[in-house]
Specification:
The chain contains four helices and two strands. The protein is an all-alpha fold and 141 residues long. The chain has one domain (2-133). A two-stranded antiparallel sheet has the order 1-2. Helix 1 packs across helix 2 and helix 2 (36-56) runs antiparallel to helix 4. The protein is elongated. The N and C termini lie far apart (43 Å).
Amino acid sequence: MVLDAAGTCAALPSAHVRMPSSRSAAYAAAMHAVDPSRTGRALQGVLAEAIALLRAHGEDHWARALAGHLHRLSGGGEGLDLLGAFGGMGSLNDLVIHPVNGHRIDESEIGVVNADFARLRSEMWDLLGALRAGSPEARGQ
């Protein structure tokens, strides 16, 4: 929960609630693709967008962590190690961009920026699920 401009509590969307996507066609194609490289490229795009958002608001810890995952994925890694960022205390799911957390953000932007980050987090989760489903382990190989 965060406080909105009027000082009332406003719930943020859950990381696992499917949010409308601004990348509609590319995201939808990757989610239905059988080709792991296509899904991996879509994940790289989502990671790059999330990193830019985090850096713009001074969230250096998670920006660096996601940049490391992007680097490994770009180098041919499968990307599934990113799944660990979604669980436990202090995980990516717990992140709220807010001045009280030391982030550079105007009060008027808090809801929009956090909704955008929730969308990106949800897309990452979905794409990782697609990669996991297409992995040799998931196929019993």
